[in-house]
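FW: tagging you since you asked about this chain on Friday. Here's the raw sequence from the shared folder, copied in full. Didn't touch anything.
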Amino acid sequence: MRVALDTNILAYAEGLGDEPRCAAALKLIEQLPSAEIVLPAQTLGELSRVLTGKAKRSPSQAREAVLGWADSFDVADSTWFAFQAALDLSVDHQLQMWDALILAVAAENHCRLLISEDFHNGFTWRGVTVVNPFSEDPSPLLTGLLRGSN
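HL: got it, structure written out here
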């Protein structure tokens, strides 16, 4: 099952945020089957901005972190088709445009899950279900995936 990761999961894994979420994000990424992880290019751009802005890392440090993620997992580019779908999502479901683009790219790349805390947990669009890994109500899809990868 293909899984897309949102920027916030990567940022936590980079140590930005509270300790429990950072540890949980790292553990989650380690448990997921790496061949099934997709990083929408948008998430890497946002991560670079977060690392240089909030984390005050140098541009070269941010670049190294982003390239490290890109070396580890498949990166999915944004297409015009995904961008058009994101426009519809932003209008029809009141999603922020750049979040909508991440969801559209996940769908275009046949992901079943988008792991994020920035969307409504359980929201499903074009076969992609958004899962908040920090939710008190664990997702059966994510639980099953993690159980199957052990």
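FW: The chain has seven helices and six strands.
HL: agreed, and Strands lie at 3-5, 37-40, 74-76, 113-115, 124-125, 128-131.
FW: great, closing this out.
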